[in-house]
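Quick one:
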Amino acid sequence: MTSLAFGIYLRATPQRVCQALADPALVPGWLAGMSSGPAGEEDPRRLTCEWLLADYLEINGGCVSVVRFDLAAMGGVTRLMVHHQGLDPAGSLLTALTPGWPVILSRLKTLVETDEPLEFRRSA
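Output:
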């Protein structure tokens, strides 16, 4: 199994970032299939999510992958690190997520900084 890691800085509090990550009403669709919640009461900066695609496990070699979000306050900025573990090196999930996570993080950054989702439109 392999893993991916990405980092981004957002002009928002960790609480605001965590809220956006945990509230599917704020980010409809892009966290589909993920259930999330704080990893523990003692560390409110960490949010751990498990991504289980129960109907499509074959795209990850039949295995569940785990996504961990680590948030750290840096003044008025939050450093967000994403660690996605348990990815099958031969699976199509890894192929989709390698370019997909940067898009997800860009959409999240725009959402928490402007309160508007980043939309991609196909050119004609």
